[in-house]
Amino acid sequence: MVYVETLVMGLGAMGSAALYHLARQGEKPVGIDQYDVGHAFGSSHGHSRAFRTFYHDSFYTELAEAALPRWRELESLSKSRLLTLNGAVFFAKPGNERFDQYVRVLDESGTPFELQSPSQVANRFPALKPPEGVDVCYTPRAGFLDANRAVQTHVSQALRLGATIHKGIRVLNVDAGRNSPEIETEVGLYKCDRLVLTPGPWAPQILADISIPLHVTRQQKFYFQPHQTSPYEPDLLPVYADFDTQFYGFPYYGPGIKVADDTLGEYTTPDKIDRSLDVIKQSQLQAWLEAIMPSANFSFGSGATCMYTVTPDLDFLIGAHPRNPNILVGAGFSGHGFKFSTLIGLMLAELATQGTTTHPIKRFRLDRFREV
Predict the structure, then answer these.
(1) CATH class label, 49-145+215-310
(2) DSSP 131
(3) How far apart are CA 78 and CA 306, in angstroms?
(4) Residue 337: how many CB atoms within 10 A of its CB?
(5) 198 and 272 in contact (C-beta within 8 Å)?
(6) Contact between 131 and 247 (Cβ < 8 Å)
(7) What is the pTM of this model?
(8) Which one, of 355, 102, 120, lies nearest residue 241 by Cα?
């Protein structure tokens, strides 16, 4: 048996951040993961994740604003570039109620934004030509995070501060019925005083004993190559999203221009997910990309699958396990959690060490679905 005071299970976006913040608070946490740090089998890998303040609810707009200085602090400590604020352009045909609601939230919250015409966007970003007649919202406090680098930086900084990680540790069962949680793994038993559970798409299995209605969906991302890269790099091209198709994309970064469909894919599990690429979806996204960047002459580069772990209301799960206050859970990030991960790691670390957090998490309580 291995005994540790504070154990973090799962070292993706949220677990790596929790490990880092625990170490910053003077703890000596141990992190375990069934794979290596930065693996491509969960939901935290890849070259980019959107950072945006454009939301349906001011709660998330404010949460993104609170996360931003945490990212800058981590960059300063690590001397690593993690967040690129190159702006974001969102567009939709007139009458799109979801788009209109997002704009209202920005206006009411006082968050900077500009309503523009498609021609104004094309003048500002010559490579990007939204369809004629659409409504456009430009937000300057937006951009993208380097996902792989963010996870690796959280872990490396945690290790520098005294944390330890154990790789290749596959969890078989979490016993929440004891005051000191016990974790059964393929290599033996772990016992701890405090457990931070950040299982990513394995959450439905790990949290099966408390019947939280979680679903894992299969998502795909594709990278395309323009005939020349310079007009499509982050200093000339923002993040962009179409609220009618729910397609979105990034500037040229890493292996190419990444685009994806934000609609929920079919239900799956991490062990059974089909990792082959859908050529029909690839063609749809390429056609969309060519329509809004008609001068690029795109060719297909590569693609990959990932997963969303989705709650019924698309809000997160953050808080104490309902059967054990010594187990803190971060799960169900519903495809939009990465931008908040360094802040969520802080929340989980505060909950583990202090029993409370200064940040608002009531909305994320784990027992909320029992009231429905």
Answers:
(1) alpha beta
(2) P
(3) 27
(4) 21
(5) no
(6) no
(7) 0.96
(8) 102
CB 347 within 8 A of CB 357: yes
Find out whether 285 and 274 touch, Cβ atoms under 8 Å. no
Residues 6+ apart with CB under 8 A from 296: 127, 224, 226, 227, 231, 232, 257, 289, 290
As a whole number of angstroms, the distance between CA 281 and CA 77 comes to: 40
| The residue type at 122 | A
198: CB partners within 8 A, 6+ apart: 8, 9, 10, 11, 12, 14, 15, 18, 329, 330, 331, 348
pLDDT higher than 70, residue 372? no
The CATH class for the domain spanning 2-45+148-214+313-371 reads alpha beta
pLDDT of residue 124: 96
pLDDT in tens, 132-169: 999 999 999 999 999 999 999 999 999 999 999 999 99
Q: Which residue has the tokens 């690590």?
A: 78
Place of tokens 């570039």: 81
pLDDT > 90: what percent of the chain?
A: 96
pLDDT for 80-115, tens place per residue?
999 999 999 999 999 999 999 999 999 999 999 999
Q: Where in the chain is the domain with CATH 3.50.50.60?
A: 2-45+148-214+313-371
Mean pLDDT of the chain: 96
Q: pLDDT for 206-248, tens place per residue?
A: 999 888 899 999 999 999 999 999 999 999 999 999 999 999 9
Q: How far apart are the first and last CA of the chain?
A: 40
Beta bridge partners of 275: none
Q: Which amino acid is present at 338?
A: F
- In what order do the strands lie in the sheet containing 143-145? 49-51, 143-145, 83-84
Cα torsion 59, 60, 63, 68: sign: negative
What's the pLDDT score for residue 370?
76
> What is the location of CATH 3.30.9.10 in the chain?
49-145+215-310
Could you tell me which residues are beta bridge partners of residue 85?
none
